[in-house]
Amino acid sequence: MGRVLIVEDNELNLKLFHDLLTIQEHEVVISRNGVNIIDLVKDTKPDLILMDIHLNGISGIDLIQTLKANQETKHIPIITVTAFAMKVDQAKISKSGCDMYLSKPVSIDKFFKAVEKFIPSVTKKE
Predict the structure, then answer these.
(1) CB count, 10 Å around CB of 1?
(2) Does residue 126 sit within a domain?
(3) Modified residue 4-aspartylphosphate is at which positions (predicted)?
(4) What is the tally of structural domains in the chain?
(5) H/E/C letters for each residue in the chain?
(6) What residues make up the domain containing 12?
């Protein structure tokens, strides 16, 4: 069980990610625009960030670079979840400092596995 920050401006995607995370008993924090991202991350101390790349008026890549350049937030893993699936886009996103890339639409199984890589699931059998 962990705290996950979702940075997503699409309400349907936001609801899906929120619901999937709460099924696994994670605490969810939401940002619909990425504004004041450093302050939000410092205040909420997430264990993982799910970052959309194409946000309204701001680049998720810029947000990732800002978070990874900050001493207090650089250790937090970031999974990008985006519809930008071209190889050139993937390379640009990878260079931003994100820890994992998922392309939309993302399968539920892939989503759970990606989150579990960074935050072990409560429901995991021993």
Answers:
(1) 12
(2) no
(3) 52
(4) 1
(5) CCEEEEECCCHHHHHHHHHHHHHCCCEEEEECCCCCHHHHHHHHCCCEEEECCEECCEEHHHHHHHHHHCCCCCCCCEEEEECCCCHHHHHHHHHCCCCEEEECCCCHHHHHHHHHHHCCCCCCCC
(6) 3-117
Cβ atoms of 110 and 102 within 8 Å: the answer is yes
Per-residue model confidence as pLDDT tens for the chain (126 residues):
899 999 999 999 999 999 999 999 999 999 999 889 999 999 999 999 999 988 888 889 999 999 999 999 999 999 998 876 666 667 777 788 899 989 888 899 999 999 999 997 654 443
Question: Which amino acid makes up residue 27?
Answer: E
